[in-house]
Amino acid sequence: MKDLSKIGLALLAGAVAGAVAGILLAPQEGAETRKKLARKAKKMEGQLKDKAKEFGEKAKEFSEKAAEKAKDFSEMASEKAKEFKGKAEGFMSKANDVKNDAIKTAEGYL
Predict the structure, then answer these.
(1) pLDDT tens for residues 51-99?
(2) Could you give the angle at which helices 30-109 and 2-25 cross, rounded to 10 degrees?
(3) 29 in the Ramachandran plot: left (φ > 0), alpha (ψ -120 to 50) or beta?
């Protein structure tokens, strides 16, 4: 996620730098250049806001899906733990029965 935002920021910075350089190097009067820069900046501001909103919506969607998957995993792990506990208790009960039978058998030989 961090790499993706770094790449997006680098692309945006490159686009802004390219647009500014292109306008500044164009053979026009200062007032016209400033107007062009202002228009481009306003346009890019709108585009950036749209992308930020889109990114925020996708991040929220991803977060909700991750939380849902974590909840599902937690429930599944809890069920498996209960199942394992039940099996372990069954094995312990059988082992205890075998132990008691062995003790009775041993006592019978004494």
Answers:
(1) 888 888 888 899 999 999 999 999 999 999 999 999 999 999 999 999 9
(2) 170
(3) beta
